[in-house]
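Protocol step 4 of 6.
Sequence for PEP-CTERM sorting domain-containing protein (Emcibacter nanhaiensis) entered exactly as in the expression construct, tag removed. Do not edit the line below.
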Amino acid sequence: MSNIIRKIAVAVAIAGSMFLGAQGASATALDVGTTSGGGCCSFGTRGFWFEAPTDFTITGLSLPLESVQDSTLEVVLFNSTPPTYTNTTNDFTSLGYWEDVLSVETNLYFETGDIIGILGWADGRTPYNNTGGDYASSLGGFSITLSRLGFQDLGMAYDLWTEDGTIGVINVEYELGQVGDVDVSEPAQLALLGFALVGFGLMRRRKTA
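Step 5 output, structure tokens:
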């Protein structure tokens, strides 16, 4: 699948998730560990990144909290491994960005080898895992490593980095393979629809600490 067609497909999938509702009954929760009760930061957003071990679809995201007043959730696709802090990168595409929600249903398809970032923040902090360092998990029976990801601001991601340290906990629901079919036979029409809806859904509102 070409990069252009794939971006169109992802755009339509994001737009469709706004209208189509419920995720599949076979969704599995990614093991992201347990929250410590603490977190970071009023000035920055944290999360984790990992490499897809197989084809899969993210069908839902949520923050491990009972309620939120002010929050962000975001999924990014890197073109290369994020650099170690203090180096940063903007070599990624934001595939979904949501504000002031506790959870969201979506349909974001990834292929084996994709480098995926998950970010979240709510009411002054990103909830932290109760263990330090990288977190060993699995996806579809394959071992993966969740590594710390962040940037020194709030709102939509930019200047992302990785470093040794505790991961931010954002819950992820997924299904193996591609969920549903995306018609990419008319790329021009899909581009018009996808870009218009994504532009509507992913408007950036910069937050200040």
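Step 6, annotate. DSSP finds two helices and 13 strands in the chain.
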